[in-house]
Amino acid sequence: MQLTDAFVKTLTNPRIVSAITSTILIILLGFWLRKRAIFSETFGKTLAKVTLTVAIPALALNSFMAPIDGKTLAEGMNVLLWGFLIIVIFLLLAPVFYLKLPKSERDVMGILTTFGSTTFFGIPVVGAVLGPKGIMYSSIFNIGYRVFLYSYAYIKMSGLKLEVKNVKKMLLNPVVIATFLGLILWLTQGDLPHVTVPTFANGVLVTGASSHSVSIFRIDQTALWLWTPLNYLAQLASPLAWLSIGITLGSLSFKQAAKSKLSWYYGFNKVILVPFITLGLTGGFAAIGILPLSFVAIATMVIMMATPTATVASAYAISFNRDAVLASNAALISTVLTVIMMPIWIAILQVIHNAGWFH
């Protein structure tokens, strides 16, 4: 398929167009509601906490309520390995982008460039565009991300040794708990007790389908009374996250942040160069059969790495007084650029897929 045909097919795909417009319009709604003072700045922070504490954990857990097969298992393990490799690569590569800066600023910008808002921004977008399998892969990808964010990034930004309280913070995070619980249940479902149940799809009984045997912990089949409320909460993740992003943008001074040329340079690196390199690495190695990945897995990782500054990384910079103003300006600029670039990345990925480059 020619690129022109692939581009037309992408732009006429209602699911892709709807995902893009939903992201933009709901973010703009949050921005407008904040500017009109209907939502306060504190309300945006409350929405973010609800999203990270309730909605995204439910989304992550439910994404693992799926049958396991050899291909998906192998690809999931490749995604896990890539999750570690990509973070290590950018921890080494990102400081090179800022060689003209003093070492202190170079270290800070390297951390901010490597770690994006994968949980709060990335997973909702992945879910909207790539569906449950994309959410599963994004949750697996985030394992390596979180290990380095709460260990290496903390040590680098604080100048201290890793503290026990930070390890507890990582392990007791609701998203981490839901991810590991879901991953364990998904991986071990063949060895767990099984029951025979009617066939359900998205909580609806499939008429005419025969009963089948599933793991007792496949709650989407065995415990609809539990899966259904979790699913309602999971469906809140994207709209709540996007509203919160809009409220945040409406609460900050873009004019002040826009004066920093370094913030714009950082924004380019974070939302354009980093995902481009990620696409090149994962796609290139997949093409030659090393750590092969499907389109869904590759697109998931590109979207996750095309996110703005991670909230935790910004918090490190502010808490430890490591160029706090620069970090805040960079976070705002990268968020604005992500709102602009994310639909473009989604379109680019779909064009590549429609052209038959990745399957």
TrEMBL record:
It comes from the Bacteria. InterPro entries: Mem_transp_PIN-like. The keyword Metal-binding does not apply. The keyword Transmembrane helix applies. It is a multi-pass membrane protein. Pfam families: Mem_trans. The chain crosses the membrane at residues 16-34, 46-68, 80-99, 111-130, 136-155, 171-188, 232-250, 271-291, 297-318, 330-352. Keywords: Cell membrane, Membrane, Transmembrane, Transmembrane helix, Transport. Its main location: membrane. It is found in: Membrane. PANTHER family: AUXIN EFFLUX CARRIER FAMILY PROTEIN, TRANSPORTER AUXIN EFFLUX CARRIER EC FAMILY. This is AEC family transporter. It comes from Fructilactobacillus myrtifloralis.
